[in-house]
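To: structure subgroup
Subject: Chain for Friday's discussion

All,

I'm putting the inputs and outputs inline so they're searchable in the archive.
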Amino acid sequence: MLNIYCEDFDFSALSSAFEGEVESDCPLSAECVLLEEDEIQRLNREIRKIDAVTDVLSFPSLDGIRGARLEKRAFPADVDEEGNLFLGSIAICVKRAKEQAEEYGHSYERELFYLLTHGLFHLLGYDHMTEEDKLQMREREERVLKKLGLTRD
């Protein structure tokens, strides 16, 4: 089970769509915050040393977990008071999400779910640095979005 905490948007449907994407002996959790352009630019500048607005930033709590079975005992410092293993935080720029939804011809909701899904896979150790990694990550993202009925069509 994956619990997603976000004050500004209900992403609970993503929890069941992520079933089968990661093995774990305990519930998982992640935090998502929706930000304005200046806020995400500041984070991007301070953390990545890139002074530009971006659509999504991921801040993983766990290292070296790509494709691994996640076990609570391996990460005792990352288990919250409810017994969830905390994967990390994701920041999404609202304005960029709206612009990209329009640019790609789909709904704002679909873009938000895509950006969060993309960020969650980063928290799980996936990346898109090589073409092979990019294809693998995109396949996983599209599989999750398809379960939600949020395809590109």
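Points worth raising on Friday:
The helical segments are 13-17, 37-48, 94-104, 108-123, 131-147.
The radius of gyration is 15 Å.

D.
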